[in-house]
Amino acid sequence: MASEIRVFNTMQQAKVPLQPVTPGKVGIYVCGPTVYSFVHIGNARTFTSFDTVVRYLRYRGFEVRYVRNYTDVDDKIIKAAKETGEDAIALAARFVREFEADAKQLRLLPPDVSPKVSETIPEIVGIIEKLIARGAAYQSGADVYFEVRKYEGYLKLSKRNLDDLIAGAGERELVGEQKRDPLDFALWKGAKPGEPSWPSPWGAGRPGWHIECSAMSAKYLGETFDLHGGGLDLIFPHHENEIAQSEAASGKTLCNCWMHGGFLDLEGAKMSKSLGNVVRLRDALERVDAEGLRYFFLSTHYRQQLAFSDKSLADAEARMEYFYETLKKVDERITGKDPSTPLGAGFGDGPLHGDPNRFLVEFDEQVSDDFNFPGGLGVLSGLFAELNLLTDKPPVKDKPMVGRTLVALREVARKLAGALGLFELPPTEWLLHRRDRQVIAKGLDRKKIDEMVAARDAARAAKNYPESDRLRAEAKTMGVELMDSPAGTTWKIAA
Ligand code: AMP
Ligand code: ZN
Q1: pTM, whole model, 2 decimals?
Q2: Which numbered ligand comes closest to the C-alpha of 32?
Q3: What's the pLDDT score for residue 495?
Q4: Would you put residue 15 in left (φ > 0), alpha (ψ -120 to 50) or beta?
Q5: What pLDDT, on the 0 to 100 scale, is given for residue 406?
Q6: Which of 35, 37, 46, 297 to mutate to test the pocket of ligand 1 (most atoms within 8 A of CB)?
Q7: Within 13 Å of residue 383, how many CA atoms lie on the same side as its CB?
Q8: Which pLDDT belongs to residue 165?
Q9: Smallest Cα–Cα separation from 421: which of 42, 91, 110, 157?
Q10: Is 172 a residue whose pLDDT tops 60?
Q11: Distance between CA atoms of 58 and 24, rounded to whole angstroms?
Q12: Between 343 and 311, where is the model more confident?
């Protein structure tokens, strides 16, 4: 029996069993990027967390419908467009393309639907009309506002207090807006010159921020769905307002479980465009491998805060190198490419410590508990320790059947990797990429290394062993280790 999946629900402040509206199917909505600039690794952390949630749910056999929107109409986009002199919609479209390129490089799963505000205007207008008809919203001039005090459940997600909010809102909120109450928020904003706008029953204008997610989630997942995700900063006001709008319009619960990811911090502060302490995802991916970055994200629980540093990235990539070195060794044994163990030799057979499938059971015990990916990585580490034990065992040449345990464990590794989005490249390819990055990072002369390798092959062919030893020693002083293999000299960065 697979472990029951339990998820921390911000609404209940407790872990609750995942009980999909339709058994066997999960609808998940993740608030996507506001496309006015390049995505940073704080955003990437949140998107990777939910990407892995989707992967794990699919691994567990759920049919998942994954929706992640693009906020392509927004104050920040309009401001950025004014600065560059570009059309706001065109600027947003450009950053959607940039986001897609970055997401592909990080190997995030493409969502099943990636709706945009600019393509959801009729549905947005429809909900606002419904809210006005129900007396939950009112028109004021060219704007439409949601009347917060009429909605009883306000602040049930964020557990805030209305009085504190009123004190915080103050006069500032009233300036330039025609609200009845400072707590009310805009559903529709009348058009201003130079801003994108669409026709509506209230004149030309554009939607407020929150209404888009109410419209898009209802359109693609229905009025009640299973999981809704985003970073912690979205709990208030964004998700609180989504709930108010959707539930006041439909009379139904918007979402059964609210998931919020912790922040990625840089030098003690939340990484954010407004603070300016950002590392762009594409810049990070020049320095670290996509799976190294994913490993770094997943090694801390998604709800906890995570501090970014160059060292933590380097450590994560070194760990990935260990995994890939192990897989390379295992694959060479299994396929018989390892010359010390001719195909058919008895090696890698066990069980050393029990049934290989126990790792699958342990993995589920960990990850089903509120997507505890760090726990899952711990199980993966145990599995790799065992793979190393098996491959380190000398081959037993007269055993007829080979490596059943090794083959079974390799299959377990493949399954777990799929659930986590790791080990998608052939080991040799990943290791060569890693070596190339290290050559650049350490400022080594690649041409010189290739020349030394060729010179050493020539020396060995001529049986000039003193010269071959001298070349090895010279390489070492450069930080490069030359190694012998039946196919000739190979090399790696010295440890
Ligand atoms: P934005 O493009 O600002 O709307 O953000 C997109 C997503 O990234 C939202 O779910 C945010 O909560 C999330 N996010 C923004 N900054 C961070 C951060 N420093 N750490 C983790 N998630 C973040
Ligand atoms: Zn949203």
Answers
A1: 0.94
A2: 1
A3: 80
A4: beta
A5: 84
A6: 46
A7: 31
A8: 87
A9: 110
A10: no
A11: 10
A12: 311
Which residue's CA lies nearest to atom 8 of ligand 1?
Answer: 43
Where is 229: in which H helix or E strand?
A: strand 225-231
How many whole angstroms from 242 Cα to the centroid of ligand 1?
17
Ligand 1 lined by 39 (C-beta under 6 Å): no
CA dihedral 198, 199, 204, 209 (to 10 degrees): -50
DSSP state of 203: S
Query: What per-residue confidence (pLDDT) applies to 485?
Result: 83
Distance in angstroms (rounded) separating the CA atoms of residues 136 and 18: 31
Q: Distance (Å, rounded) from C-alpha 162 to C-alpha 415? A: 48
| Tokens 């163990």, residue located | 341
- Please tell me the distance between residue 47's alpha carbon and the centre of ligand 1 in angstroms: 8
Cβ atoms of residues 347 and 338 within 8 Å: no
Half-sphere CA count of 28, side-chain side, radius 13 A: 30
For ligand 1, atom 12: residue with the closest CA: 231
Q: Give me ligand 1 centre to Cα 118, in Å.
A: 21
Best CA proximity match to 409, nearest among 360, 363, 337 = 360
CB 128 within 8 A of CB 205: no
Q: What secondary structure does DSSP assign to 377-404, as a single string?
A: HHHHHHHHHHHHHHHHSPPBTT-SS--H
> How far does residue 42's CA lie from ligand 1's centre (Å)?
6
Contact 463, 427 (CB under 8 A): no
Closest CA to 255 of 32, 30, 72: 30
- Where does residue 293 rank: exposed (0-12), middle (13-18), buried (19+ CB within 10 A)? buried
Question: Which 3 state secondary structure label does DSSP give 352?
Answer: coil
What would the pLDDT profile of 97-136 be if each residue is shown by its tens digit?
Answer: 999 999 999 999 999 999 999 999 999 999 999 999 999 9
Mutate to test the pocket of ligand 1, among 43, 79, 306 (most ligand atoms within 8 A of CB): 43
Average pLDDT over residues 305-313: 95
DSSP string, 119-153: G-HHHHHHHHHHHHHTTSEEEETTEEEE-GGG-TT
Mean pLDDT to the nearest integer, 349-365: 80
